[in-house]
TrEMBL record:
One family name in Pfam for this protein: HTH_20
One GO MF term attached to the UniProt entry: DNA-binding transcription factor activity
InterPro entries: ArsR-like_HTH, HTH_ArsR_DNA-bd_dom, HTH_MetalResp_TranReg, WH-like_DNA-bd_sf, WH_DNA-bd_sf
Keywords: DNA-binding, Transcription, Transcription regulation
UniProt protein name: DNA-binding transcriptional ArsR family regulator
Gene3D superfamilies named among the record's database cross-references: Winged helix-like DNA-binding domain superfamily/Winged helix DNA-binding domain
Amino acid sequence: MASAETARARTLTHVDPVEVSLQVALDALADPVRRSILRDLAAHDDWTRACGTFDLPVTKATRSHHFSILRAAGLIEQRDEGARRLNRLRRPEFDAAFPGLLAATIDRQAD
């Protein structure tokens, strides 16, 4: 099982927000499902929300796609713990690269 977990963890690629273009950041934030994920993460402590615990109106495959987009935009960091993939909003890092952008998009009323 350890090799399967290791292989799964290797599929995680995290991008530093300073390496993300404004267009990629805006595209990631444009989707209401992704904004919902980010709002949820902002309301919880780091590493307390597993991917499967979000109440989203999408299939498991689509959910995975949304998390991948958020990772590629430098908005979230993920790590595997057993069978669960835990998430952290990278707010300090993202705010340093794009000051005010998260506040303007996820700190507002829900869509």
